[in-house]
Amino acid sequence: MIVIYSLLLLLAIVIILYLLAIAPSSKLNSVEEFKGVQFAHRGLHGNGVPENSMKAFSLAVENGYGIELDIHLTKDNRVVVIHDNDTKRVCGKNIPVEESTYKELSELWLENTDEKIPLLEDVLKLVDGKIPLLVELKSKGTNTVLCPFAAEMLDGYKGKYCIESFSPFVVSWFSKNRKNVVRGQLSSKMKTIGGDNFKDKLFGFLLTNLLTNFFARPNFIAYCYNDVSNLSVQICKNLYKTPIFAWTLRGAEVRESAEGKFFGYIFEL
């Protein structure tokens, strides 16, 4: 009997620690402002319009959609809008973004068009508060060097915006240094983060199950649409009442089926 009680006590402790680990911020800040927003993934791109381009952002504004975009920091500390760590996929020339100057990147063309890699400051001027922004900060490991540069630029922006990142260290930076900025933890079902070694696999497991929430303290969770049945996501949604954003919904049929099921979502046409 003592063994059974000991096992039950141990189980209870494990469950309590798990619930504490996945607990997001209890403060919702201004998350309600983003309820029901449909964010165009990397702008309204396709049909010859490159992703994360000024044209894609202009089309999103014209059609009244929110914009999800990705930012990196260049070697000379300029905040640029691009998804990948290098330019090979979108520009055809393999140049590491964070090891290059903005001048070097500005000489490239996006997807054989006359569009170039934008600066965040130019996107903010274009949008000018007309629609909400969802800014994803790209970061490797525990690196948060992008955060103060992005935060300083966004401090002067008068429109509605929130930030998100796969890096809990980035989300944590904002929870400590920009407490009033709405912040989200990005995740999905991951086998690993960045590599196949034990550390990357462990981090992938922790992030998949939102076990980094205890120090990141996100205001919302942005989770892959196909993986939202994850237990931690469902507990955050139903127990902690955490807003859940889904990404990325592709096509009208998928968007229709998701209507009303999420706080907001990121989509592609």
Task: Provide an overview of this structure.
- The chain has 11 helices and 9 strands.
- With 269 residues, it is an alpha/beta fold.
- The termini are far apart.
The coarse overall form would be globular
Structure summary, number of beta strands: 9
* Strand line-up across the major sheet: 1-2-4-5-6-7-8-9
Mean pLDDT rating: 95
Q: Poorly predicted ranges (pLDDT <50, ≥5 residues)?
A: none
User: What structural class do you assign from the helix and strand content?
Assistant: alpha/beta
List the helices and strands and how they pair.
Blueprint: H1 2-22, E1 38-41, H2 54-63, E2 66-73, E3 79-81, H3 88-91, H4 102-105, H5 120-127, E4 133-137, H6 146-155, E5 161-165, H7 168-177, E6 183-187, H8 198-208, H9 213-216, E7 220-224, H10 231-238, E8 244-250, H11 252-258, E9 264-268
Parallel strand pairs: 1-2, 1-9, 2-4, 4-5, 5-6, 6-7, 7-8, 8-9
Antiparallel strand pairs: 2-3
Helix pairs in contact: 2-5
Keyword list:
269 residues; alpha/beta; eight-stranded parallel barrel; 17% strand; globular
How would you sum up this structure in a few lines?
With 269 residues, the chain is α/β, with parallel strands linked by helices. It is 36% helix and 17% strand. It has eleven helices and nine strands.
